[in-house]
Write a structure and sequence with these properties.
- With 92 residues, this protein is an all-alpha fold.
- It has one domain: Up-down Bundle (Dbl Homology Domain, Chain A), CATH 1.20.900.10.
- The protein is built from 5 helices and no strands.
- Helix 2 packs antiparallel against helix 3.
- The longest helix is centred in the N-terminal third of the chain and has 32 residues.
- The mean pLDDT is 83.
């Protein structure tokens, strides 16, 4: 997480660290899960798993559809991007 890395940087005020962590950690967590699902599906496409026997391996839309709700919930965090950059620039 950002907090674990930035927590060691004494040059950034805690308020900036907290703002950035609260904005980017949820996005990072979502991305890790989404990426894992896509990588698993690609492994199925390439025949590196037994799921290809079921015949559902050449689909990606179901993963996108499933994750679109999670992405919508991250909108509030994505909207804080400009604020994070401004505060980071001020701190530097």
């Amino acid at each position: 997480s950002f907090q674990s890395v930035a927590g060691k940087d004494e040059g950034l005020p805690d308020s900036v660290k907290n703002l950035i962590a609260s904005s980017y950690d949820p996005i990072h967590t979502f991305h890790q899960g989404f990426l894992k699902e896509v990588e698993q599906r690609l492994a199925q496409w390439e025949g590196r798993s037994n799921a290809h026997i079921k015949g559902d391996y050449q689909r990606i839309g179901d993963i996108l559809l499933k994750n679109i709700q999670g992405l919508r919930q991250l909108t509030v965090h994505l909207q804080k991007h400009s604020e994070c950059l401004v505060e980071l620039e001020r701190a530097c």
